[in-house]
Each structure stands twice: as C-alpha cells, then as structure tokens.
Design brief:
This protein is 0% helix and 46% strand. It is mostly beta strands. It has a single domain, classed as OB fold (Dihydrolipoamide Acetyltransferase, E2P). The protein has a 4-stranded antiparallel β-sheet with strand order 1-8-6-3, with no helix packed on it. The protein has a 4-stranded antiparallel β-sheet with strand order 5-4-2-7, with no helix packed on it. The two termini are 14 Å apart.
Length: 82
Amino acid sequence: MSTTEAREIVMPDLEGAEGITIGAWNKKKGDHVDEGETLLEALTDKVNAEIPSPVGGTVEELLLEEGDPVKPGQAIARISPE
C-alpha cells in the first residue's frame, strides 16, 4: 500500500460492550483529522465512548451513518494519510 492510499479505519473493541451504535461523527467527508483526535462518538449499552482517529489525514469517506449499528473490527471510515 502506498502512502497516498486511503486507510480503512475500523471500530475498536469496546471491552464488554454489546450493541455498539454510531452516535455522532465529529468529522465529515473532506475534513482534516489529526492522529488521536476524536473521529466519532460510539454509543453502547454501558457507556458512550469517544473514538480517536488512529491516523492523521483527510476523511475520504464515512462508511456508516449516525444511528447505524457497528461491530468491533467493522470498517467505519477511510482516511487518506498526510
């Protein structure tokens, strides 16, 4: 994979959480995001968790909408690195 290709971002495993839902995206397509900056809020049966971006770059695509269910390891976005 070259450094210019978009990286697929996956939902991390939120220990013990069942029924993860996309709460709110903090970024939209075309936005810049820094590594470690909150990309979205995930809602679970136990907590609401801020999910940081594992890479910095430009949001190329959001693969799920707010309110969509999501599983750990499922692709949620694509980010082109800087």
